[in-house]
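Sanity check

After download, print the first record. It should look like this:
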Amino acid sequence: MSDRSLSEVAQKMHDIDIAMLSTHTQGGAIAGRPMSNNGDVDYDGDSYYFTWEKSRMVDDIKRNPKVGLSFQGKKGFMVAVEGEADVIKDKAAFKSHWKPDMDDWFKDGIDTKGVVMIKVSATRVHYWDGEDEGEVKLPGGKRRH
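Expected structure tokens:
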């Protein structure tokens, strides 16, 4: 087992757009759905996704903010993230993560009624890269479990 830095893992994640975002449902099941980070792939421990405020995913996060993200890259590279999710409604915060092609999904851009941004802040990051695997040391020099 080896431990790479967050920047080393982030570099290998650079081309990964789709993540599987998993939440805890009201009934206790785990629900997963693919989410695009819309090309916002510079990973620093936080991930951002846009969705509808009235979605089951947002309801799940409001009840229990502990979520999971899984990423699969090239040549057997995979990352599992445990994190805390926040539902953000602030349009000013949307601007730094909005991409023009998102207007296809949200017709009025950041002013689309009912759009929210989900921010997932990693508390634990585990990666697999062929036979190499490890846990990323997160900012602050601590592993958070």
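If your output differs, re-run the checksum step. Summary of this record's structure: The radius of gyration is 15 Å.
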